[in-house]
Design brief:
By secondary structure, this protein is mostly helical. It is built from six helices and no strands. It is 72% helix and 0% strand.
């Protein structure tokens, strides 16, 4: 009998979640879905965080990345991060510039 790994248990837990919430899974995976809005995004992120399905939050944000409210969040998060770095918290400025340049190589 095959031993069930930690990753197997995570996958099983995720699949059970999808079976329990098929409508939400549909909203997560369907770009331009008419019922997806900022309020639903908020609800889904809270629920996914509560269920510790953090990877799915990133899937949700990527699937709906063209929605204005998701673009706005990304822009504000970037500005917050740069402001913190510039203010002396976290990485230094030179490292931040190097990290940015890596993406343009």
């Amino acid at each position: 009998m095959k031993k069930i790994t930690k990753r197997d248990r995570q996958t099983i837990r995720f699949l059970k979640w999808v079976r329990r919430y098929p409508g939400w899974w549909y909203l997560i995976c369907t770009p331009n879905e008419e019922h997806m809005n900022i309020k639903m995004m908020n609800t889904l992120i809270k629920h996914l965080a509560q269920e510790q399905l953090y990877e799915i939050i990133f899937v949700l944000l990527m699937v709906h990345r063209k929605e204005k409210y998701v673009k706005d969040v990304s822009n504000f998060m970037l500005l917050d991060m740069v402001t913190e770095i510039w203010g002396g918290k976290g990485k230094d400025r030179e490292q931040m510039i190097k990290d940015i340049l890596k993406y343009f190589e």
